[in-house]
Amino acid sequence: MDTLLLTTPTQHTNAGSPVELSPKRLQHWIASLPTMDVQETVSQLEQALVAFNSTPLSDAERLRLLEIYFAAYEDILAGYDEVRLNMLPVAAEKRRAIAQAIMQLYLDLAAGYKIIIKDQFERRQRLRRNPLLLACIYRAIELISLTMLYAFRAHRDVPPLCYLELYQLYSYAEENGVLESPVKNLPGYQSAPQIGNLFKQIMLLVLTDPYHINPIELYEYYVLAERFATTCEILPLEGKTLNSPVQLIDLASDKPPVFSKNPAAVKHTPFLRQINISSAVEEMKLWSDGQSKHDTSLAKEQKKRLTTSLVMHLSNNLRRREPRHNAHQDIHLIAGIQNILYACEKTELLKKIIARETHAGIEVHDIEDEQLESSTHSCRVLNESNSGRRISNLPAAVAEDMMIGNVVALLDASRNGITIMAGLVRWKKEDQHGQFHFGIEIIPGQPAATAIQTEASEQAIGGLVFPPIAVLKLARRILLPQKYYRDGTRLNYKSTTGIIRATLGESVMHSPAYVVATITGK
Question: For residue 121, which phi and psi values (nearest 5 degrees)?
Answer without folding.
Answer: -65, -45
